[in-house]
Amino acid sequence: MFLLVGERVYSQAQDIGSFECALCGKAEPFCHITETNYFCLFGIRLLKVDQYANYYRCERCGNSYLSDSPCLPSQVESVQNVIAYILLGYGKYEAIDLAKDIAVKVSNFAMEADTLKKLTRQYATADDDFLEQLRRAAFHINLLGKQQIIEAAFLATHACCEIQFEDKTRINLMGNALGVSIEFVNQIVKSVRANDCYGIRRLLPTAPTNP
Q1: Do residues 111 and 83 touch, judged by C-beta distance below 8 A?
Q2: What is the pLDDT of residues 62-112, one digit of tens each?
Q3: How far apart are CA 146 and CA 165, in angstroms?
Q4: What residues contact residue 169 under an 8 Å CB cut-off, 6+ apart?
Q5: CB distance 79 to 148 below 8 Å
Q6: Of 107, 111, 98, the residue nearest 160 (C-alpha)
Q7: pTM value?
Q8: Would you say 98 and 58 are in contact if contact means Cβ atoms under 8 Å apart?
């Protein structure tokens, strides 16, 4: 007898009333979103295997928030972390104007100079795996927020170098840590390029001119 068994992710949205949205600037309707993986038999949920996501979502702007602290969209911290991490990797950790520009254009929230300094010191000395940090953060971030993180990773890289294979691989690994596909990452990069990379200033070395 053939039995249809396997695991399946179910998404649930529950209205939870109005909260102050940091982006909208006023109280808006919010939903509590959970994504849970179940072991199923004939499509019937029998056993909870794992939870994939848990966040609040503003129904007006679509931004996700930590369910226990709806102060700033949950991706903002990761956007700033990615910017600092990549600028440090290319030795551009003092490029605060660039960091601010990327953060605002991607997430609509500014990145302060003290934040960049703090994060670069942290990543220069910490043993914490950055990709594992993204995996943990992804639990509270929706697809819109993950898109912004990938945008920030690409823009910071684009500003610092002519992107090569290893640079693309690094961005793809960040996408994997966030739980999105390479195809999704490629579409984001294509869209950002089509929008002239949001006018982000590049820090490439200038070729010497002949006297």
Answers
A1: yes
A2: 999 997 666 899 999 999 999 999 999 999 999 999 999 999 999 999 999
A3: 22
A4: none
A5: yes
A6: 98
A7: 0.88
A8: no
DSSP three-state, residue 110: coil
d(CA 148, CA 150): 5
The type of residue at 163 is I
List the beta bridge partners of residue 47: 39
Q: Which two tokens stand for residue 80?
A: 């700033």
Say if residue 173 is exposed, middle or buried (CB neighbours under 10 Å; 0-12, 13-18, 19+). Answer: middle
Rounded distance between C-alpha atoms, residue 168 and residue 157, angstroms: 9
Q: Which residues contact 16 (CB under 8 A, 6 or more apart)?
A: 30, 31, 32, 56
pLDDT at position 207, please?
Answer: 42
- 141-166: per-residue pLDDT in tens? 999 999 999 999 999 999 999 999 99
Asked whether the CA dihedral 42, 51, 137, 177 is positive or negative, the reply is negative
| Distance separating alpha carbons of residues 152 and 185, to the nearest angstrom | 12
C-alpha span between 32 and 65 (Å, rounded): 9
C-beta neighbour count of 28 within 10 angstroms = 16
Q: Name every residue whose Cβ is closer than 8 Å to that of residue 69 and which is 6 or more positions away in sequence.
A: none
Helix, strand or coil for residue 69?
strand
| Helix %, strand %, coil % of the chain (to 5) | 45, 25, 25
Nearest to 107 by CA among 73, 131, 130, 136: 73
